[in-house]
Amino acid sequence: MTQSAARLAPIALTTGEPAGIGAEIAAPAFEALQGDVPFFLIGDPAHLPHGTSFVEITSPNDALDAEHLPVLRHDFGPARQPGVPVADHARHVIDVIARAVALTKSGEASAICTNPIHKKALKDGAGFAFPGHTEFLADLAGGADVVMMLACEELRVVPVTIHIPLSEVPAALSQKKLEQVIRTTHEAMIRDFGISVPRIAVAGLNPHAGEGGAMGSDEIEMISPLLDTLRAEGMDLSGPRSADTMFHAAARAGYDAAICMYHDQALIPIKTIDFAGGVNVTLGLPFVRTSPDHGTAFDIAGQGIANPSSLIAALRLAWTMAQARGMTADSNGTEP
């Protein structure tokens, strides 16, 4: 562990939906990362699988020397029911997320890693008014403009539009939206990944990036002019590029992150390359936030077969990003 890393506070890991696998994969993740990536779980110890070795802590700092999974207690009340959300748990799931944010803002935690939530359970049980984790975190951060990145060791992708029908993508794309995504990604690559001059590849919307207008004019009319403007500011941008030739190994070696126009254009390549090890990262927040790239997995909850690989990768990446922000703070003499 580097000297810079040694000064960092541990990561706050939220328990997520108790009926899912969040509590089940926390201990295996701790065992895999012990001595390398310090973190603590915010949740109810009663939700941990029977026989889990843990230590209850009263301060995040206690997690730095813990020999077993450190748990900052947050009582949820009713017993956990694997695979079946309990309405009375919803408010506590929300409160744990807010608590993790508060600990990160205060400097007691260096980053947040969030286990999956179940949005319908939160809406039904507590009137949760946000589409998901990301929007809630952006609200807690004061309304930050945020961007979703999916990352693994071989690839980082950022979709401009996310969970909308493919037929609605062209209308949802605009120069303003694309510019915000590119700028947020560019700034995050510098601040959170320590890349001083990020190389960003931008996909076209249409097959063959429109093929000179033969397959669509979005690239000519909207994407290319924006990229030219941003290049004039000094950004290292390539594109618009044909998406079908962007993701083989030789192409990936030429950029640090890829901006894609819609959900599947971004997520199919990364899930093909590393299905179990992908990490969801929220860019643009004033704090680091990562999450495993899977859901609550109600169908296997309570069976002891959940794979912790994505959570392990998410915690590793959160620590790397926190280190990068720490080094930025050290070099500037101020907190990032």
Summarize the structure in words:
The protein is an alpha/beta fold and 336 residues long. The chain has two domains: 1-146 and 285-336, Isopropylmalate Dehydrogenase, CATH 3.40.718; 154-273, Isopropylmalate Dehydrogenase (3-Layer(aba) Sandwich), CATH 3.40.718. Helices cover 37% and strands 16% of the residues. It is built from eleven helices and twelve strands. It has a twelve-stranded mixed beta sheet with strand order 3-4-2-1-5-12-11-6-7-10-8-9, sandwiched between helices. Strand 8 (199-203), helix 8 and strand 9 form a beta-alpha-beta unit. It is globular. The chain starts with a helix and ends with a helix.
Give the CATH H-level superfamily of the largest domain: Isopropylmalate Dehydrogenase
- What would you call the structural class? alpha/beta
**How far is it from the N-terminal to the C-terminal residue, by CA?**
21 Å
Based on the structure, what is the oligomeric state of the protein chains? Answer: single chain
Report on the biggest sheet: 12 strands, mixed
Count of all domains: 2
CA-based shape: globular
Strand content: 15-25%
Please tell me the overall pLDDT: 93
**Helix count, DSSP H or I runs of 4 or more residues:** 11
User: Helical content, roughly?
Assistant: 25-40%
Order of helices and strands: HEHEEEHEHHEEHHEHEHEHEEH
The first-level CATH class of the largest domain is given as Alpha Beta
Strand arrangement within the widest β-sheet reads: 3-4-2-1-5-12-11-6-7-10-8-9
The CATH architecture of the largest domain can be given as 3-Layer(aba) Sandwich
Uncertain spans: 1-5, 328-336
Number of strands: 12
CATH-derived topology of the largest domain: Isopropylmalate Dehydrogenase
Write down the Rg: 20 Å
